[in-house]
Write a structure and sequence with these properties.
By secondary structure, this protein is mainly beta. The chain contains 1 helix and 13 strands, in the order αβββββββββββββ. Strand 1 and strand 2 form a beta hairpin. The N terminus is likely disordered.
Amino acid sequence: MACLTALTCKVSAQTSLDDMSKKAGDVPYVLEIVAEAAHQAGLTRYLVSVRLPAGDRVSSIYGTNVHPMTLRAPGGVFNSPYNGSWSASGMNPKFFEIMPDMGDDTFATVGITTGAKISGVEGAEDPTMVQDPGAPWDAFFTEDGETDLAIDTHTGGAWFVLRTAANGEPVDGKVLLMQVTTAGTLSGAINVQIFPGSEDYDQLRCRFEFDGTGEFPGAIVE
């Protein structure tokens, strides 16, 4: 069910969340889920993005046992054999004309839909993945038909770019986090680390829970 309520996240500096909210004010962060028709009949591409103010940057999408990250696609996800990566780094639009199904691939990203070198974004970098060897999660972005992703161990896991990466900056007010293509619905919970543009505070972590398409509010977590 879509939620169209705007999010107000209260962020903290070196003291407490309440103290920082008095300093920096209310900062809007919203998870946006947009559905579009896939090239393949019967499939839907879900574009998962976070909306954030100009000057802020997305750094990491992560999960831990304290704040698990989960994705649920009961219809199974589509993963193209032509993307040899778990991320958008293996996506090349030059191949879409002869392999159009490749455009439906399920992939993780930070702000780009291709490899960084061909993205056209100066200063972009491909995301790096870290995962618990005992509980890998990358199959959701590499194996066709996967239905669940869970990053929920003490070690945790993430994909991230450096703070200096240009693709962490919003374009048209948002940063793409992933594309998920499936025959059914998509739901889950996502944690995002953000570097705010203000010098009053360093970084914040926002958690979003969602079900279907729309705009979903989140909450600051420590």
